[in-house]
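ok trying again, last paste got cut off:
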Amino acid sequence: MSVAQKVLDTARSEVGYQEGFSGGHWDNSQKFSGAVPGLAWSDEQPWCSTFVSWVFQEAGASDLAPVTASCFEGVSWFEDQGRFSEYPGIGAVVYFGSGGGTHVGIVTSYTDDTIYTVEGNTNDSGSAEGDGVYRKARPRKSSYVYGYGYPAYPEGIVVADPEWKGRDSVVFFGREASEDDIPAGGSRPATPTDSGRQVVIDGLAYGPGAKGDHITRLGRMLVAAGCSAYKEGPGPVWTSADTESMRKYQIKIGDRGADADGIPGKLQLDRLKRDFGRAA
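nice, full thing came through this time. structure:
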């Protein structure tokens, strides 16, 4: 199953879920905040963005979308990745309202006139402060739609943006598309922690078992690139966090498959040094 399909299936599986009800009103208490590391504080707060973070986490794709309870931060995250558009995409994260800060959902399909979504913290009328998870159909060309974040799905992404036509791992549909158009496959690449693969670039080893100050420098550059998976460090001994951080960087720059396995290639490393070498 493709990663985008898993994201959509995960989102749809929660349709019908409702937040807590107390004191005669809906209270924003829900299960998603406590299940996402770092977002437990957001329980009893508006939770549409928290729901999106939870969906990607449960689909095994938490690095493909922002982990945040803030719609504004979500927009900024996709913009920083160079993956924000005014056109819809299948499995895209759609932001609503001024600056995209009012509400958010996940696109399941679109036509020339309509986007179909799954959204948390909404209701039958489409409020940005609702009571549960709903399927919605919204006017695509409404001024309420601010824009779309495009996750870097490993199988590629189906989009309507003409500027993205011809890009690697992009399927272009000018007017309408659905999940039936999602490219097949898309399994996440196995990490080199499983294979033990190691490479030597300019006389220095990278990958499981590698040690040295250059590993620390690599980690600092990855942090500066916004691709950190570190809970501690980075440090001089290669860990699974180095693998995951490097894989996030590879996906960020558009690489896929064997080129996004978490072990640097020379061209990738040279680009990282060029853009973020001062951070090391």
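cool. Residues 187-195 have pLDDT under 50 and may be disordered. The radius of gyration is 20 Å.
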